[in-house]
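Here's what a typical entry looks like (Phosphoacetylglucosamine mutase):
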Amino acid sequence: MKMKGVTSIVGAVATDMGILTTPQLHWMVRARNKGMKASEQDYFEQLSSSFSSEDGGVLNDGVGADYVQKEKVLPNNFGSKDTGIRCVSLDGDADRLVYFIVPPKSSGRIDLVDGDKILSLFALFIREQLSFLNEKEDMKNCHQAHVGVIQTAYANGASTNYLKLLGLEVNFTPTGVKYLHEKATEFDIGIYFEGNGHGTVLFSESFIESLEARTNEISLGSKGSEGEKAALRLLALSKLINQAVGDALSGFLLVEVILQHMGWSINKWNELYHDLPSKQLKVKVADRTAVVTTNAETVVVSPPGLQEAINEETAKNPQGRCFVRPSGTEDVVRVYAEASTQEAADTLANCVAKLVDQFLGFNSS
């Protein structure tokens, strides 16, 4: 209607710039009057080009998701003023995210809410919606979703136990997003996240079709039961999450909407379970290919005797878990250990590292 109104004026020429914010439109009018480029893209380019650092620097240096997740310390420019608020950190190419809390008197440390906790939040929400979807008698004949949670051996054992307590099927794959993603495609809803914050949720075409059928019934005049609302929520989730790859922006939005839906603070989210203390080490070896593993890289089959020695050390520790795997890029063997206390996890990791050196170190022959 506005276009018709403008063009009705003799000599007036109207240009449709599309759907814009009011400030964008005013910026474009001003830019056009000054002889500048005035498209929506030009608006965003001017904003983004204005963010130049006077001192230069490295992208995400001391602030990115990788730094926060591995070091578990405050990012640059965070401090006591941020105590208690919900914070999120993305990596440089925006495919990973982790949340964190600045605790009172943190002394530079943070309470990390990592990819395992993000996975658990998504899984809990999806499980809740599926329970609504299936509780009504008239929905018993609907597509029953086969849900799979996919983790690697590096997932904290407390997260795995929590997911199993929810009644969810937990599957393990070798380390690497390509393995996690491939496994996730086998389910109607496949959920995967690594501790570093890389992950997503996949939906099968058949399950999406069943959700669309339910939402079509709502549009035809259904009153909208809790089960039908759940269908709408799951369909919206399938559109919001990036099903092609881990996407920090879509993941961040999904976390925020779930927390809003549940009325949860980040502290309540973080209390879903308490991580078991863990320790990771690297041991230099003469030839990493001498280590052959199975069972999603958690069991050593070569060299003979190493796995038995690891089992013996692990059994000495309450809630102990330990595995070793060869690096994919350098001649080192990576050691991961968990136990009921940090001291026990450190001790277990150190003992197993010595075993690896005995079996595979430069002086092992």
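The mean pLDDT is 90.

More examples are in the samples folder.
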